[in-house]
Amino acid sequence: MKRLALALPTLSPLGGGVAEAARLHVATLSQAGLEDISVHTLDPSMEKVDLTKWPRATIWLNRTFGPKSYAFAPAMLVSLFRARPDIVHVHGVWQFHCLAVWIWSMLTGKPYVVTPHGMLEPWIRARSPGLKKLVSRLYQDRFLRNAAAFHLLTEKEESDVADYRTGQPVAIIRNFVEPFASDGSDPLWWKPDFAGKRIYLFFGRIHEKKGCMELCEAWDSLSASDPDFRDNSLLVFCGWNDGLTGFENRVQALAAKHSNALFAGPQYGPDKNRSMAKASFFMLPSKSEGLPMAVLEAWAAGIPSIMSPECNLPIGFERGAAFPTGYTEASILASLKKAALLSEQDRAEASAQARELVQSEFSADRVRAALLDLYQTAIAWKAGKK
User: Fold this and answer.
1) pTM as predicted
2) What share of the chain is helix, strand, coil (3-state, %, to 5)?
3) Which of 235, 243, 286 has the alpha carbon at shortest distance from 263?
4) Using an 8 Å Cβ cutoff, are 275 and 187 in contact?
5) pLDDT band with cut points at 50, 70 and 90 for residue 52
6) What's the rounded mean pLDDT across residues 197-224?
7) Straight-line distance from the first to the last Cα atom of the chain, in angstroms, rounded to the nearest whole number
8) Measuring CA to CA, how many Å separate 302 from each of 12, 187, 293, 298, 360?
């Protein structure tokens, strides 16, 4: 294998963890001595994209047509032929890039590897069922069944792809994150009177599945019943609202009632790390995840997480880097109460465990070696099917 292509919906951080995981794959695979790495995307806007963070990669931006929820990019098929990859790594499903890669594979006989990023789990399949049923019938089921291998992020995903496996190899390769660094400056949302408070940070896409509204309800209940918690805690949401109706108004109501909540909006580049550096706990009471990059980034910054089992990182609980919660108001309330009782020594120990966990289990070298091995296995499997 000399030439590798990656196909994904967008390079923008607005695409969430999929884009970041793909960027990190490119960063580590660029050290593997490949002749060429090309990246093919459906989104030509490049919103919030820093191309300096995609080193040594040829970027193909393909013009799209149609609705944003399902955009067509016929030029992606052309870009794949022009890039001449030996194998394509597909990140994410349900969108047109899967169709383009499937057609490319049928015409060339070359293999592709699929990373679903948790998009095949039951909670996701139940969203927009009509559109997903149509896409499945038109091509996605055949696209998945003709994959030469599956790259999974968690053991749980094995059941998600079971219906589509036709003997293909499967590898569980977790994401990794880069070392954390902050310049020591305050984030734009910071105020002097926040000093000394415990900061509970949510960072990422504001979406129904992330448990944001339930977190607000639990925060309201605890702040109303515990003045000490109310006066010494701050809930900060950093991210962009992806269709969660009423979210901004709910946070404003919390701020007006308790003076301990704010919505800081999206944070990129240095602002992201400045926000992370202020956090005491990272909140993710999610209902559905693949493997959330934001949790790994928080651990790299030494921030213990309060997260649901649906984040698919049980190792965080095992190693003391995370504290469990559910995604209902009652379960989040209970987890907030427990977190409030932790001493500073308890939190410092959890912080140290978080950093050590990232260093030992989520390294770039480990991911690079595993991906290269999977690509060779997929190529051999495809050759054996011919």
Assistant:
1) 0.76
2) 50, 15, 35
3) 235
4) yes
5) confident
6) 96
7) 18
8) 26, 17, 14, 6, 14
